[in-house]
Amino acid sequence: MKQRQEKLYQRIVAAIGESIGAGRYTIGMRLPGERELAEEFGVSRPTIREAMIALEIHGLVEARHGSGLYVTAPSGQLPSPRELDIGAFELIEARILFEGEGAALAASVIDDEALAELDGLLEQMAGCDPATPQAMEIDRHFHQRIAEATGNTVIGTVVETLWSLRDRAPLSAHIFAEARREGVHPRVDEHRSIVEALRARDADAARHAMREHLKRVVDDLLNATEVEALRQTQSRIDEQRDAVRRRLHP
Prior knowledge:
With 250 residues, the chain is mainly alpha-helical. The protein has helices at residues 8-21, 34-41, 45-57, 88-109, 112-127, 133-149, 153-168, 170-181, 188-199, 203-248, and strands spanning 61-64, 68-71. It is elongated and about 65 Å long.
């Protein structure tokens, strides 16, 4: 049986673990910055971010505001590849591929009934609280309805599977949960642009609108995880400040 291929960010997690074990990075030592690591490993910023979040989830590193990521535990506690099977950025990359082409195909065959359903979903999206689970379900239904509009059962099944993995895979679920806590919600205007391209039966415009929308999701996730790291650091600073105040003013 062919051995399962290791993901890029998993390789980085393993490589950093080996570096910790070899003494290149010791507990309390600062890791190189994202840009430096991206250049060292020849990968993108999202890949480095997933690797860093994977290490942080398992308590191997911690973020310190204005300073970077520091080693907090030995490499022996590294997570297994199965534990970190799918990351959010990898998932969005697959969605850009499948949903972009799916939107292009849907534009050439979509019927008025499907367009009316998408219009209704846009109204629901605009009318509900974006922070609620309902908004996420509407978003999911919107994307799945476009996949169904292609008339290709395989495309519909693939898109449904990708959405299911979003909340089932631990690393992906963690990143999306942090994004929701930091106020990242579906943008109605981007979804409306997709529908207008479908209504015009313009395959190129539908592909472009879908891909641009999902690329914006990547940017939102990157920004949200940066904000979360700052929030955690600020919380630690506040705790330390309170401790000092208690010592000075018993």
